[in-house]
User: Which sequence fits this backbone?
């Protein structure tokens, strides 16, 4: 499985960061997003395409359609600097699939 | 508190074996979908295995036939037995769980992660 994410995204504080996750027909999957800060374990920031777990700011949102899922972070803060991974479960193979990961850098 | 704690990592020679443990609290491993995810140094997340609530297990191709997942329901622990270890298995190994018990458990993401345990395969 190859699930393509841009290796890096850079954005100035207060601006909007968009991180994409591309795979054929990913719109048919339930996509989740994880944030991993340096030296820490990943944490779930969005589930089922566009739902936020409790404690995740409304600044985080998502969408999923066609061949692309997207994580959008508005009003980016220094604390958002991290690696972000998309993920879905493939029922055809019973495998969990992660995207390649994107490093978000706050300028 | 819902959490998992991994243990059992260490330095092992190529060809050796190691058993990792994932101790859960606040939920029951036998009712949920338990995963191992690893991260090689400087690399991204790689899914390793899943154990379903019904006991079925699945593995990524690179570890199939070498790694085995099991669980002890009485202790609420999931294990990852790693045999024939290779240098490329060197990574932090995370235990992560889909803790939703809904039929659409896969809608809810891996919402519980441990801090990981480090496995280094080197001579």
Assistant:
């Amino acid at each position: 499985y190859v699930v393509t994410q841009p290796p890096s995204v850079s954005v100035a504080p207060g601006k909007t960061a968009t991180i994409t996750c591309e795979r054929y027909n990913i719109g048919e999957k339930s996509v989740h997003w994880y944030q991993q800060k340096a030296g820490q374990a990943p944490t779930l920031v969005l589930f089922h395409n566009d739902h936020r777990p409790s404690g995740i700011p409304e600044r985080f949102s998502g969408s999923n359609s066609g061949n692309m899922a997207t994580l959008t972070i508005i009003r980016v803060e220094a604390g958002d600097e991290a690696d972000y991974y998309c993920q879905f479960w493939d029922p055809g193979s019973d495998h969990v699939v992660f995207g390649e990961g994107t490093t978000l850098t706050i300028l | 508190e819902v959490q998992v704690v991994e243990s059992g990592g260490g330095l092992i020679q190529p060809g050796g074996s190691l058993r990792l443990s994932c101790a859960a609290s606040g939920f029951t491993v036998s009712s949920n979908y338990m995963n191992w995810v690893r991260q090689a140094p400087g690399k991204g997340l790689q899914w390793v295995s899943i154990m379903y609530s019904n006991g079925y297990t699945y593995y990524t191709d690179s570890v199939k036939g070498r790694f085995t997942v099991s669980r002890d329901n009485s202790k609420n622990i999931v294990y990852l037995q790693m045999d024939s270890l290779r240098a490329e298995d060197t990574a932090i190994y995370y235990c992560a769980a889909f803790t939703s018990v809904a039929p659409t458990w896969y809608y809810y993401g891996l919402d519980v992660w441990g801090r990981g345990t480090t496995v280094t395969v080197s001579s």
About this structure: The interface with chain A takes residues 35, 37, 44-47, 50, 56, 58, 60, 94, 96, 104, 106-111, 113-116 of chain B (CB under 8 Å). The mean pLDDT of chain B is 96. Chain B has no helices and eleven strands.
